[in-house]
């Protein structure tokens, strides 16, 4: 377990959780880093106490609880007073202090347990894709879904993607043979957890049947619901950006088991039609759509380090969500983390 500690050498004596301030001294705490990663992931720009720059370094302690500490010292002056202040490892983040107007959220591992997606949604799509395709095969919507899948499968075959199998030609009248090939490809895509628009679109159609029949109910963390309600009261708009289709997103939030329809708190839904979630350009497009003056007025919440990096590169504020079952982060990821939306203050 790690707890950040800041040692500031100066006249700075006043402290508060997550922030350190005093006579002309102000800077925000950041995520703890091991001693051999001196200042990595910690922005040094603007860290000053009066006219003296603050230098950050990590030190260890022989405390009964092994922890790493960060030390900030001013250059020179052996008579300067030293102030030691401890802060919680996951200090709160203030929307108003950071001038946040919009919050954009990932779903899996952020608002919703990964287990819900892996153990409920994916198996349901695998088990029911064939029935959905057979029942709707001649509808315009399913024909369009099949055309999108065909284009992806042809690309996969050309690139030698494992699990890809060719589809019968579009003019082949053997419906069962086409559905068999489609299901085989869909199964392989799901098993590989591929974030493909063609796959996610079909999954959304299949899940709709499950949500409408009551076989599936959405799952959202309680702290997320409380935060959405609070942000709504304070005029902060909330959005979803997920690799799952917009239809699937609306189904999850519109049919939760414990909280009913949460769509009243959500202003819009974005999927991979706006771009891949690990591509910085996608977040630029979202900023342009939301219409705020600066991308820094948007807070993005995700559990995926590559997504966080892409959003930060586009100028967005970012917090990484730490939830049970989430993939581990790189040791020197450089982002502030939260374990609950309750840590985001308005």
**Straight-line distance between termini:** 28 Å
Level-1 CATH class name of the largest domain? Alpha Beta
What are the low-pLDDT stretches, counting only 5+ consecutive residues below 50? 1-90
Shape: globular
Strand content: 15-25%
Strand order of the largest sheet: 12-11-10-13-14-15
Number of strands: 16
Count helical runs.
8
- What is the alpha-carbon Rg in Å? 24 Å
Give helix % range.
25-40%
CATH fold naming of the largest domain = Rossmann fold
Order of helices and strands: EEEEEEEEEEHHHHHEHEHEHEEE
CATH superfamily of the largest domain: HAD superfamily/HAD-like
CATH architecture of the largest domain: 3-Layer(aba) Sandwich
Give the count of structural domains: 3
Quick check: average pLDDT? Answer: 79
- Helix-strand makeup class: alpha/beta
Main sheet summary: 6 strands, parallel
Walkthrough of the structure:
The chain has three domains: 5-89, no CATH class; 102-112 and 219-345, HAD superfamily/HAD-like (Rossmann fold); 115-213, Transcription Termination Factor Rho, Rna-binding Domain, Chain A, Domain 1. The protein has helices at residues 114-136, 140-159, 175-191, 197-213, 222-233, 246-254, 280-290, 305-313, and strands at 5-9, 15-16, 19-22, 25-28, 48-49, 52-60, 68-74, 82-86, 93-94, 102-105, 237-241, 266-270, 298-302, 317-321, 337-338, 344-345. The longest helix has 23 residues, at 114-136. With 346 residues, the chain is an alpha/beta fold.
